[in-house]
User: Fold these one by one.
Assistant:
Number 1:
Amino acid sequence: MVSRLGKVLVFALLLAGFVFPVGAQDDMMAMDWESVDPSGQTVVFWHQHSGAREEELAKIVADFNASNEWGITVEAINQGSYDDIYNRMTVSLSTGEALPNLVVAYANQSAVYYLLDGLVDINGLIDSEMWGLSEEEVADFFPGFYEGDVFPQYDGVRLGFPPNRSMEVMYYNIDWLAELRAAGAISFDGPPTTPEQFEEAACAATANPFSGATSDTGAIGYQLSYDGSRFASWTFARGGDIFDLEANQYTLNSPEAVEAMTFLKGLYDKGCAGEIFERFEDQTNFGNGVTMFTVGSSSGLPFYETAVSEGAGHTFSLAAIPHTTENPVQNIYGASVSIPRTTPEAELAAWLFVKYYTTAEVQAEWGLASNYFPVRASSAEALAEYIESYPAYKAAFDLLPYTKAEPPVPGYDPVREETARVMPLIFTGSDTRPVQEILDELNEFANAELEAASSF
Amino acid sequence: MTVTEQHAATSASSSAHSRRWLSFLKHQRTTENITGWLFVAPSVILIFIFGIFPIGYAAYMSIHTWRIRQGAILCDSEPVDFIALVRSCLSNYESAVLGDWGGAALFALGLVGLFVAYIVWTRLFSKRHENVYAVLRIVAGLLVMAVGITLISEGYNTMTGALRPRDQAFLKGLQITIYYAFGSIPLQLALGLVLAYVLYHRVKAKAFFRTIFFLPYVTPTVAAAVVFGTVFSGRDTSPMNQLVQLFGGDVQRWLAEPRPFLNVAFGWNLEGFIAGPSMALVVVIILGIWTYTGYNAVIFMAGLGNIPGDLYEAARVDGATDWNIFRHITLPLLSPVTFYLSVLGFIGTFTAFNTLFVMRTPTNAGTLDTSALVIFDTFRAQNRWAEATAQAIVLMLLVLAMTQIQRSLLEKRVFYG
């Protein structure tokens, strides 16, 4: 009798183990969200925001908790850095520990979660008549931001939703440029828009230090920082890409990438560009009027303001990365929020908070407090006064129609790290091989990494 | 009762007594055993949970496909023979760590060759004192050593060549680890010994200086690394570059320099293992020496305190010079301390992480990535958990082997007084 009962139990367990997950996955794919009731759910939200951003997020969460009609409670918890969150998520997915209901994730990280069967395809929620977004609402999102979380390589699933973005921009010293123009050291007005103008200005700045510099360190046109995003930005600006989504392969050795790296190496060889040896060295030097150009995230604007106000006090602004294309091609980045697979009720509740978080009004508040770009065009109306009064922010905001993102593929982090390592070898001449050969090797590494990271 | 009966009764009583006594002893031994086990149980449990179990679990992970989630076991279910079964189980070791078993065998054979060279050097014709035998011994030792080094080099090249480029990091990391260990430990020990000797014999206020020398060791590693990063920054205005320029030298990239130190300093264009550590790694070695020299000095001073003073007095009476005393009394009697510190040093450098992690940047282009850092990257950035555990186990075996080799080579020379 016991034996028979044991057999029945084992069979039931096997059935639950083998059949239920498949059934659950099918259920999720064809989820009827209209019949799900999110009332009374608690949404645990893992994020990385700290300081003023965390305070503003807490305010947004409190407003949502107080006003939502379903009695949903969001608990926003800082879980450390992006890396910390990723590590916690992978461990939770590996061990079966409780997942959060909402998590901040870069596209390449959400791809990993998806491959581990840990994320909800948000398309179903967006398309829901009862809970989703109208066509007008969808059209209000900046296209580049909105499409960034859709994964063509996984049949178009949407694994995240953007609450904010920032952009890779060029910071430049307006006063110094004016001095160079007045002295006839450069032949154009305004910030450089082409690589040739950039080189002209960078070399002129190196030869003609800024009169208002507050440091006796030698002047330098541009300080190169070694980072996968810099590599991508300079490649994008030449009309190239670092990834071919159709072929699902990296193209880090494309002609445009080789041209971009060769161009930067040329600047270095001529002494018009230099390295960054310490954290934020370029930002500090820019503030002191020692460095004419730097390239970095638009969300760093407040930090640049501080550096300049504590340094040379010059006027400065942001502009597009000098490009060879007709229009600028700007690298946008930033983490989205993803909805881990928990229960349909909690998943829907998490989506309702995301929907609130990305409304035009909340986005305007969030943009003001965080210095990120809002993701909806109509937020610009609410921010109009702010944008007009803040030329640097406006300059970056005006570039939003010209954006492109880095590849949303699993295993991108080690590729970024390897790219950052290869850059100094090229620029300093430590690796004497032709740029093409070095990038061919990098691309081979990246594709091997992609292949390994694409299955679990 | 007859005498016989009395004798039988006495004998029976004695036998019963013996049995009771044996039973008592057995019981007592059991009780003692249980008490002993109870005393050591907390330690045994802790060692098992935090020491043995993780190692065992890592070994278990290393024979699976395991990227975040556990996959299938790698062992072939229908192996041709036992060797095939073992190879299939260890395929993570082959494909991601060692590259080629033949190469690994050559490498190991080379290590054995070096050991044989040492034996030849120290033992061949050891009882014959003629010069011709000394020359023979040296020549034979050098020959075997050359064979050993050639095998190591061939083995290393074969292993690396069999690996995909993305999998070569661990072996390269091993090379960097060896530079780090052999670059820092001998100097740490030598400087520590000199400091301790001078302090112990020549300086007053020993306690004060002991504290001063110990400070680098208790300074938080990360803070020290950040300060060294600033001092050895590649900026023209960094403290080290200012110092170099003061003496008419050229500005150096220091921590940002991935080129070999010998190339930067002397212009030598050496290839492969003999190219030596990068300039960046030399800076980290300097930090290591700064951190541990004082610690070693303090331990050496404690060792010096244990050497009986009458030995020194007797030596002086016999007319021994300071050097003779140091060479024939101090050094031999400090050998247990030296052995202890060198073993700890090798274990520490082979598993070093924090300093290197803080000081590595894209500019030093991976030349600070020791095996421990490579394992971390394999685990964290690449999520290749099975390969990371295979690497960790290989590193653990290497550390064990290094410790054993040190014991074999040095322990016989250790003089415990």
Number 2:
Amino acid sequence: MDTLYYYLPFLESVRDFMELGGPVLNWIGLLTLAMWVLIIERLIYFKVGHKKMVSAAQQLWEARPDHQSWNAHQVRYRLISVVSRNMDKYIAMIQTCVALCPLLGLLGTVTGMVNVFEVMAVSGSGNPRSMASGVSMSTIPTMAGMVAALSGIAMSTYLQRKAARERELLSDHLVIKHS
Amino acid sequence: MKTRTMKFLGAVALSMGLSAPAIAAEAVNLDELLRQVETGRVKDAQEAQERLAEFRADRSSQQQKLANMRAEKTRQENLSAQLETTFEANDVEIFELEAALQERLGDLKELFGVLQQASGDAIGQFSNSITQVQYPDRTAWLTEFAAKMGQTTRMASLDEIERLWFEIQREMTETGKVVEFPTTVVTSTGEEVEKTVTRIGAFNLVADGKYLEYLPETGRVLELQRQPQARYTKRLGDFEGASSGYTPVAIDPTRGQLLGLLVQSPSLSERIAQGKEVGWVIIVLGIIGVAIAVWRWLVLTGIGSKVRAQIKNPQNPGNNPLGRVLKVYHDHKGDDVEALELRLGEAILRETPKFQSMLPMLKIISVVAPLLGLLGTVTGMIVTFQAITLYGAGDPKLMAGGISTALMTTVLGLVVAIPTVFLHTLVSGQARKLTQILQEESAGLLAEQAEAQRGA
């Protein structure tokens, strides 16, 4: 670990920042990481996997001789549903992550304040220097939680709207022919 | 005086001697008695004469004594007067001499003041310094020296001044050194162990890869009950093992204050206990929530895998939600499309609510937990304000204890709510997926199957 810090000195400042923010900051970091992994996975899916699914669904639909019976309608629903089910995967989880980030920030604030009051209980209010660590532990997670939520909120909205639009597009592509 | 007492005793003995023959003579006769009285009377008169002569002689000697005493008195009075004048003269002389002493002390008095102050400061510094472990006897000497300088009657000897200088210089030199020395250490279990301790300047005491604490009140060296992060203590081993060169090591620049605070922070169980009743309610809710989530997750995963298997094999409807829907279709194959659709809708409606079971409960827990936390906060604040009403706001420690209790319930509420929300999303996602499969895909699956059969 020490050699890693030696070759990548910025990691040390990251570590110091994480330590300044207390243990809750680690959780926020982990949650943000998970959230962004899911977001990137979704973006890649829309670029690669989704296209394949759509073309496969279209081929299945086009290959059908019958496009207007009750059976045809049900098959079409199923095709759309399978594609959109795959699209919606993880989006709820991403939204939950966005919602949880500020909540974890709040948790950090409260644990930091607990720390401040514990210091006060031990050493009285006369020593602001010893309280400072608790104050930084209570403010940094709030900020980090906000930043993490803000970073994810745009992406989650984009993904949600993209999924809805793609579903519309797909149902437009699977044309019901009336002869 | 002595002679008088003797005489009195003699008189008593005489009267006794008189009465004894009188009693003995009673048996004789009255003439005898008379004779005896006669001789006795003569004898008494003689004695009275003698006594008188004696008293007269005595009086002249008493007068002689009185004269002597008077002479003595005047002599003493003269002496007193003489001494009084001497005293006054001495008093004046003392005053003059003292003035001369003050005048001559002049700069020296300032020196005493400086010495007293310097030694006083040094005591304060030394007694809190960890070098005190190595040189415990210096503060006693310094205290004595400071007291002596405070009286300003005795001069400081050159040796003493030099020793003060030496002690301060030694402290300075020792502050810049890393030294190993043996001493008794009280371990975290309370045992006293003889250990080789490494002192890093005036900052920290270290032994066996652990930070130690020096208590100035008792002069003891204690092992810190809670050690800092492992990456700090890990380096201590290398540091203690090294004999030369440079080794990185973490020191406490506040000379042990920060490490001391580390020990005072309460442990996890102590913190949980601070939450009181509301805290326990929240914890129980959290356990229930997690249990529900895990149970539902296991159930839904089981159903999900069965449903996925069923999608691949629609011909043989099994005992799972999708299978039961397919079975309805298989049982009513002959019906027309609209009746079949109604039957399917009915079957789907029968199956889907099961997926959602207990999920609202999970949602409720995730919402109620922070609210309970808030409740605990408010009740904690009420307790705090009651304490203020009783004892006033003068003691921040009293208030801080109540406030940390109040905050602890908020923490617990959030700690329960966050995973519950997370698990709810996870489980309800699964439930929604299954619902979607049944509602939107089961009919399609049947249609595909029907077409395949017709084609075949």
Number 3:
Amino acid sequence: MSDLVKSERQLQREQVRRSYARRSTSIATASTLVFIVLVVWAVTSSPGWPRVRETFFNAERFVSAWPDVLSGFLLNVKIFLIAEVLILVVGLLVALARGIKTPAFFPVRALATLYTDVFRGVPTILVIYLIGFGLPALRLQGIPSDLATLGIIALTLSYGAYVAEVFRSGIESIHPSQVAAARSLGLSHAKTMRFVVLPQATRRVVPPLLNDFVSLQKDTALVATIGPLEALRQAQIHAASTFNYTPYLAAALLFILLTIPMARLTDHLAARTRRRRGA
Amino acid sequence: MARSFMLLALAVAVVGCAPVDNTASTTSASPATSTACTKEQLALINPGKLTIGTDKPAFEPWFKDDDPSNGQGFEGAVAFAVAGELGFDRSEVQWSTVKFDSAFAPGEKQFDFDINQVSITPERAQAVDFSKGYYTVKQAVVAIEGGKYAGAKSLAELKDAKIGVQVGTTSLSAVKEIIQPADDPNVYNEQIDAVNALKNKQVDALVVDLPTAFYVTAAQVENSKIVGQFSSTGGTPEEFGLVMEKGSALKPCVDKAVDALKSKGELAKIEQQWLGSAVGAPELK
């Protein structure tokens, strides 16, 4: 194959294609540049710009807020790293519970359905409020008093419901013939799930799962409502003491730095799945 | 082809909406000759009306029944007194709900001045204009009666306490700079959240300003007491000021009004009426 010789015509064809590609690349570059220049010019020459720059892009305020915002951000990272593991476990268990068809297990199935309905319907911030202020108010033994822990519980409850639905859709997307084949080989329901359905389902739901996790990473900021000093709260404290919004920009930057790699990974996985399916 | 056309259209749209100064009329502050403080000459947001901003909920003892327009509560009364000095009668004052965070946002304001227990600090004064101070603030510590820290006699004894405080307040900086607790304080969005945390025993003590402390102990939390107030730690005393847009043409007039209320003893009278109980808490050193 390596000594394949391209015909004169093929070479010409390729040259034309290359010149088209060059042309469209340079047009795209030029128009992007023009667009950026216009936007920057429009923003910076607007009458309110000096005030906006002073309030949102103040280097001095950025530097002075950065250490506190960063230390708060480590709490965000800790919260979502722990929460993500718990959410996967809860989500998978709930999805499996909803798949049980045995009549005796109806209460389990009903409970799982109720759980997803309730916690997907209630805004995350309310769940955090209820768990963060409600659980300690019960004054029971063994209720955690650490605010980050309460936040993790609340986020797990809320996101567990979303992730359970993602898993369920993955499980239901596996063609019934797969289950039928597995059962006819003599596999039990549990073994069919474990060896046939779940491995395929999990692979299918990885992109939406990661999407939920990007969302979760941002929602760790909501935990601030119950008191701990995470990144957004630290930024808010600095903003309030100086009446300057730049610290929020520092927090935004940290969140973007975290979520962009996650988003690219999602894209990459989705593309890989498409390729494997031969599309 | 279609794509580059869209970009072009977008670019045109951007140019179309950009740098036109549509705030020309409000930003051209009249070279404030401080004598022109009659009602007709003031540059107001809504002509003929004095628009005053404050946050919601508006707490006692600063306001009463969460309704600033009734003129009751310390700040409600101060706001109407200032309005009166400027020549507005009660029907010409309208209130606008302004979140603490948005009171200092750049751009057009929804108020002529904002009254929201905002302490005057040099950093904040870079972003907004403050009137002269209308109240001198002291911070106080509230704890549950019989709790571990209820009997504290000094700030040093509070070092190991878990402290709750509202975000954006100078109470928070007082905690950080003066008490310097071993543990990070719990920081809440609203005062009511901090109060709930105290009720739940999620925090050992609250730090709030003294009048709020009296309201918390009297009306919000049973069996709570004021542990004490911070002794003023040198430097300039902390004062509440009215917030105005940076470069506000109204400032000299509002300042004059506050000064007049002070010299007539009017401010002291209002303070006595609404914050009268806020004396006599022991000092913590």
Number 4:
Amino acid sequence: MNRTQKVITENFNTYKVEQIDKYIENGGFQGLKNALEKGKDFIIDELNISGLRGRGGAAYPTGKKWNGGRQTHADVKYVLCNADEGEPATFKDRELLVKDPYKVLEGLAISGYTFGAKEGFIYIREEYEFLHDKIRKAIKLAEENGYLGKNILGTGFDFSIKVFSGAGAYVCGEGSALIESMEGKAGRPRMKPPRIGVAGYMGKPTQSNNVETLAIVATVLKMGAVNYAKYGTEKSIGTKMISLCGNVKKPGTYEIPFGMSLREIIYDIGGGIVGDKDIKFLQLGGVSGPLMPKKYIDTKYTYEDLEAEGFGIGSGAILVADETKSVIKFLESVSYFFFHESCGKCTPCREGKRQMKKLLDKMSKGTATTKDLKNIEKISRIMTDASFCGLGQTAATAMLTAIKYFSPELCSSIDEIKAL
Amino acid sequence: MVNLIIDNKEVQVPKGTTIIEAAKKIHIKIPSLCHHPDQTVKGNCRICLVENDWGGLVAACSTKVSEGMKIKTNTKFVRDTQKGVLELILANHNQDCLKCDRNGNCELQDLCERFNISNNSLDENIVEAHEIDDFNCSIVRDYSKCIKCGRCADVCRDVQNVDVLAATNRGAEYEFIPRFDRKLHETECVFCGQCIKVCPVGAIYEKSSIDKVLTAIDDEQLHVIVQIAPAVRVSVGELFNLEPGSITEGQIVSSLKRIGFEKVFDTNFTADLTIIEEGYELIDRITNGGKLPMITSCSPGWINYIEGHGEDLLEHLSTCKSPQQMFGAISKTYYAEKLGIHPSKIFTVSIMPCTAKKFEANREEMNSYGFPDVDAVLTTRELGRLIKSQGIDFANVEEEEFDAPFGIASGAGAIFGASGGVMEAALRSVYEILTKEELEKLEFEEVRGMHGIKEAAVNINGNEIKIAVVHGLGNAKKVMEEIRAGKSDYTFVEIMGCTGGCIGGGGQPIEKTRETKQKRMDALYTIDSDKEHRSSHKNPTIIKLYEEFLGEPNGHKAHVLLHTTYKGRKL
């Protein structure tokens, strides 16, 4: 039974970027109108009722974040839409930007209004270059129709949006590295505190939200938080965009209510496994997420159920690997990704990846020893505990979970153990 | 004040203090590598991680204390993580420690000892690094030892404003190299060597001339003489475990004699000569409407900087060669004539607190009638190494005096080694020459000390002369911008490339504490106050040198031998 929803995705395939009038006919900008009409307290209340948690991966309650942001005082403040969707296996933000760009811009405008910013940025990853002009066009049309620019909807609220292009670095998804990159510097994370909410772009308070989060804000303020909160479970409220990929028959972006089981997602929505093979493992939340062995397939897709088993929603990616896939090969590809994307600034991430690559290489060739396996676990823990930013802290997650759930397979390449 | 608990001990520190500083207060030494007390907090190396109230790790160098905070620096989790980070560094660090420039004086070695690293499981020691840069005469960068802490780039950018180094590439290829993957000599590097002084390991060091000097000494055809810069005598003792600021002139002379130098002379003598030339040049500029302010030219790091960053201001520079080069010029001419030795048979060595002096000695214009003024330059650190290599017990060796005639120097020459010294020495002479009166008080206190830009005014014959003393190239830039904007009313400006002047030079022993420079500086003023002659124009050998050989100060012969030219080196 396919239980996909059309809440956040309500406008998908209903208009093209040139057709802003169709977006408006669909009820577009109603969220912004409601926000401007009813004020900031109303917005925060609605966000709290909706239970919205940031959809970029960290899952921090948006109402709380925005309410905190409102209290920051500065002459100039900025808001930012983080469209540097770099998590491998994650592509749901791209779908939102392609199929409903106005909703994202609307969410960003609401964010600007709440935060007290006159200027917003949408930082789009370099690999989505095909989208840059499209978003610029959407911004221009929104301005021409009075939904962006000076004196929006006659309320006296001025708000403009600029498009920034990333330069192709995964670490720039991290807020402070993203801002370094916007300022023209190499994309490496900044020391915190201060957080970017206090001192971000050009040293000014900058509030950053993920694409999906902003789309949900616009949706919630249009339909009402109480209506949105009818979806999902008690603790994981609402719907979620997921990117389903790997060895499933129907990979793609779907909107689901929280609370479906992973089995339902994979078989009912994804159509099952290619070649009707068995599942070996999933990776949730993108390449920085844990490997989940098949035995957890009936876990409900909610924050609380996944966290209870040591997993997480993360970016909303669900990668499925069938029974024929090698865990070591998979880890090699994960490791290669992080080896390439580490900014190099801190020792655990830079040197940890260097050594992990060497050790994985030995595992793959079958020349690794038990000492190597111990070392790889030790390095993984140091990377997790000691790295400067989230990239290094999560780069070894897949490895650590592989050791937890698949050590027989990792060890099968080790001669000493084979001989036992 | 903030109250917190570190390792079960209560400690009270001012708001804004970092955990690492708070721990220091109760004598707990949290390991660190990228942290340097004179620099911005970087938080890169991650070896200072300690456990907070929630059992998570925080970087002690970058985390500020908060009320009621409970920190543990000694749990198994902390130790394992710190040691793990150290092992990761070592796994890609060239471990030829025994033949490393920093053997015995290396922060990484100290940590290995602390963590008993003998059983490093990752130790493969196959190092992936950028190729070594030893293509210039002053500074070697050995990337196989670099731990990527960024301290070199920090001092180059924030203190010296030279800013040739940057974090480049990402991932495992991350490194601090000159921008656009150039070699140092292809950049505007001024070779000041301040990067060496802050490097925690042996990844940057001076290019050594010790072998060249020893070969010359062994060559019976050569008459090998040596000069010692003012700042060397108050710092080299540190390499032999003497207190910073110990005055070791006698030990240095004695040691060098034993090594086999024919004559041991004092650069302070040509510091006096510089004062005469520079003083008369200043008088000439004041009276004949020359370019003012006149800026001193003794510091080769500074000269490299202005040639690279201020081509338009070169006319402000005094045309005087530095004392090192003046000594070289005199050694190959006056001295050669006196001894009846052909200049090609004289090998002149100088011992300098400076890495840029090696670059200066190699400049093509630094020659006298075609003979290089100076043949080899050793830094203070190399002097220490040279003496050690000869088995000399430096601290206890009997003291000897400099050789005549270039051993007689005034106190004014000695203070050249400290920021403000050249200015003070010049004022002593210029004042007395112009007013024909004796100064009542020879000390110009305003120009002493560690303040970055020092100012003073002197009344000479009813004219108020405004002067400035600047050290550190970051400060030099500020003054250059003022001059450029026409906002500067100084007549005379002293600029030294390194913080503190030569006592903080890039060739000096690595400072172990922040007070070290001040102690060296104080010692120079002690040497000055103990001298018989305290003004350069009263040095009897200088007077004789002009009578017998040079003629008029700032005259034709002096210009041929003792003055130089400059050109832009903007790349």
